[in-house]
Amino acid sequence: MQIKKTSQFEFIALMASLMSAVALAIDALLPALSYIGISIGTLEETDNQLIITMIFLGLGIGPLLFGPISDSLGRKPVVYMGFGLFIIASFICVYATSLNMMIAGRILQGIGLSAPRTIAIAMVRDKYSGDYMARIMSFITVVFLLVPTVAPATGKFILDHYNWQAIFYSQLIFSVLISIWFWKRQDETLAVENRVPFSSHIFMNGLREILKHKATIGYTVISGFITGAFIVYLSGSQQIFEKQYLMVDQFPFIFAGLAIAVGTATFLNGTLVLRYGMEKLVTFALLGFITSSFLYCIFFFNTGNPPVAILIVFFALQFLSIGFLFGNLRALAMQPVGHIAGIGAAITGFISTLMAVSISTYIGRFINDTALPLFIGFFICGILAFIVLLLLKRGKLRLLAPHIKE
Questions:
Q1: Residue 319 CB coordination number (10 Å)
Q2: How far apart are the C-alpha atoms of 157 and 225, rounded to whole Å?
Q3: d(CA 168, CA 166)
Q4: What's the CA gap between 221 and 215, in Å, rounded?
Q5: Are residues 229 and 326 in contact, defined by beta-carbon separation less than 8 angstroms?
Q6: Rounded Cα distance, 86 and 65, in Å
Q7: Could you tell me if 255 and 147 are in contact, meaning their C-beta atoms sit under 8 angstroms apart?
Q8: Which one of 86, 131, 222, 395 counts the least CB within 10 Å of its CB?
Q9: pLDDT score, position 68
Q10: What is the pTM of this model?
Q11: How far apart are CA 312 and CA 259, in angstroms?
């Protein structure tokens, strides 16, 4: 069967949809965390955060398998494998009777969804490079971020009219529809002559190649710090707004508004990146991220939560910065390793996600009475990320020194 090539607009929409399956599996579940906790018998409110954070562990592990396979077999078969595993894992979650069983299902869900997520990034790298790749990634992220604006409200609607299990069933329907669209409309982006024979050494060879590129490692570590801070918000936002502020009905709309802040910055990034470049935007965004979190810590240290409007303003400032960071950091990390985009996306994703899960699990334990621990975590992660950025820039200068002497 002849597959009709997608336009650039449809390619962006399709890649965003592949990645959106991840967002739907996370954000639609947020209003139901307390209900799921009661159903599976969790004893601590903070334990419910694991239902969110553990899917990220799977998202980090999965690419180590699917990345090399995609470099060998092509991109498309891996997407089908991933969605198949996601469907099986979803049924484990639906029938979970304990926290451990739910965590196992969520980790498997993450492993399955890591396939379409990783392949979307690899396909973009197959087709584009440099600042233009960052521009395409920005537009994909904008479309992708439409899901968090509606997912919590959708999850709450399903919860009010059915039950929490129905949220998982809705995710299954979405994944099947996306799979059919992908099968019908997207051509294979990895040419046969560019495929790497699968072997037991493919991972280690890829890791050795990645370790040659300081920029890839540096920007991956920075991404780990920023993603870790963001996951703390994702896993703790329900507890902050529903438990601390008692805003159960308003929570989905607050979450949607803050997602729009990220989307706005990401959309602007798609235009500004061609004018100023990725590195400059990352530098200014990190400074903004650090400054806003530091101001919150100064203003509200040991004072309890501020009025919700003020909290939302500070969250919005944080997410405006994050909107300029996500796509650019990913593109900067992938730029030197385009010749092994599949395993490159896998290993860099594993490193940053493992960092992020560890960071978010630790910080999330402190979010009990106020949102202050979240902003302290933002500040510390931002400072560490900026230190890595400075070291990376100095390293680049040393790399350039021999050429200058010549």
A1: 24
A2: 33
A3: 5
A4: 10
A5: no
A6: 15
A7: no
A8: 395
A9: 80
A10: 0.78
A11: 11
Of 136, 139, 67, 33, residue with least CA distance to 347: 67
How many C-beta atoms surround the C-beta of residue 188 within 10 A?
A: 14
Residue whose tokens read 């890829």: 206
What phi and psi, each to the nearest 5 degrees, are found at residue 189? -100, -15
- Written as one letter, the residue type at 276 is Y
Band of the pLDDT at 397, cuts 50, 70, 90? very low
Question: What distance lies between CA 202 and its chain's CA centroid?
Answer: 25
Opening angle at CA 289, ends 287 and 290, nearest 5: 65
Residue 349 or residue 57, greater confidence = 57
- Would you say 193 and 11 are in contact if contact means Cβ atoms under 8 Å apart? no
Three-state SS annotation for the chain: CCCCCCCHHHHHHHHHHHHHHHHHHHHCCHHHHHHHHHHHCCCCHHHHHHHHHHHHHHHHHHHHHHHHHHHHHCHHHHHHHHHHHHHHHHHHHHCCCCHHHHHHHHHHHHHHHHHHHHHHHHHHHHHCCHHHHHHHHHHHHHHHCHHHHHHHHHHHHHHHHCCHHHHHHHHHHHHHHHHHHHHHHCCCCCCHHHCCCCCCCHHHHHHHHHHCCHHHHHHHHHHHHHHHHHHHHHHHHHHHHHHHCCCCCCHHHHHHHHHHHHHHHHHHHHHHHHHHCHHHHHHHHHHHHHHHHHHHHHHCCCCCCCCHHHHHHHHHHHHHHHHHHHHHHHHHHHHHHHHHHHHHHHHHHHHHHHHHHHHHHHHHCCCCCCCHHHHHHHHHHHHHHHHHHHHHHHHHHHHHHHHHHC
- Evaluate if residue 346 carries a pLDDT over 80: no
What is d(CA 154, CA 257) in angstroms, rounded to the nearest whole number? Answer: 14
Q: Write the CA distances from 184 to 72, 178, 198, integer angstroms.
A: 22, 10, 27
Residue with tokens 């999330």: 364
